[in-house]
Amino acid sequence: MGRNRIPWTPQEDALLIENHALSETRLREMLPHRGGSGITQRKVILRRAGKIPASTRRTAVKDWSVLGPVVLRMRKEGVSIHNIAAAIGCRDETVRAHLRRHGMPVPGDQAEKVQRNCLRCGREFTAQGLYIRRCDDCKARERSCEFA
Known about the structure:
Elements lengths: L9 H9 L5 H7 L5 H13 L15 H13 L4 H8 L3 H10 L12 E4 L6 E4 L8 H8 L5
Helix pairs in contact: 5-6
């Protein structure tokens, strides 16, 4: 059985339409018997009906047909991801995602291979990441309780 839902009144709809840009907290203060998810769902319904304008969060969409080659060229030249993002006016993660889509390596995606001395046996080995401190043999012996 579903919950009994109170239908939205025309006055509540008018209030929501007029103040749709306010934060959820402010809207909940204005509509005290409505929950946050109910207000959000009603805004979606009113937006689909054309009574509330579409979201305006994305102010400008980037033209990646122009920016894409620039980003790839800058990265090949060794410019940092942070500086590329600042130059084209977007977030670092947007540049990282673009580089991944085009098969370019992104720092932090793959573990670096590092030469280490095992903390257990002292032999030198190639670690598959910065935080690996024991060689594969010692890890295997540990799993088989040989060191116990």
